Amino acid sequence: MLKVISLLKRAEGLSHDAYAKWAVEEHVAFARKLPGLRRYTVNVVGGDDGPYDSVHELYFDDEDARAAAFGSEHGKAAAADASAHTSSRVHLLTTEHVQL
């Protein structure tokens, strides 16, 4: 299983509360349409002064599934929505190793 961890910083002028609402209630609609997405979690960071405002975790069967999802019409729409609401995004492709 491939896990994509996305670290997002909200766009300038967007309040923390408005950003949290977007991340948890609005952007998730895009994720639900991604083909091949197995699991999706959103973690909103508390406070206004951290380097990131949310951490998103997206699970795919493998790299091919991830590439197909982000290359799809829905993947491109999700990326455009994220770009409109964030000032920076970092994506880490990882393999999860559950220890406990």
Secondary structure: elements and pairs:
Layout: E1 2-10, H1 16-26, H2 28-31, E2 39-44, E3 54-60, H3 63-71, H4 73-85, E4 86-95
Antiparallel strand pairs: 1-3, 1-4, 2-3
Features:
single chain, 100 residues, alpha+beta, Alpha-Beta Plaits, four-stranded antiparallel beta sheet, 4 helices, 4 strands, 32% strand, globular
How would you describe the overall organization of this protein?
The chain is an alpha+beta fold. It is built from 4 helices and 4 strands, in the order E-H-H-E-E-H-H-E. Helix 3 packs across helix 4. The longest helix is centred in the last third of the chain and has 13 residues. The relative contact order is 0.31.
- CA radius of gyration is 13 Å
By DSSP (H or I, 4+ residues per run), the number of helices equals 4
CATH topology term: Alpha-Beta Plaits
How many domains make up the 3D coordinates?
Answer: 1
Helix content: 25-40%
Number of strands: 4
Beta-sheet strand percentage? 25-35%
What does the largest sheet look like? Answer: 4 strands, antiparallel
- The CATH level-2 architecture is identified as 2-Layer Sandwich
Distance between the termini: 17 Å
Q: H/E order of the elements?
A: EHHEEHHE
Organism: Nonomuraea mesophila
GO molecular function: oxidoreductase activity
Protein name: EthD family reductase
InterPro entries: Dimeric_a/b-barrel, EthD_dom
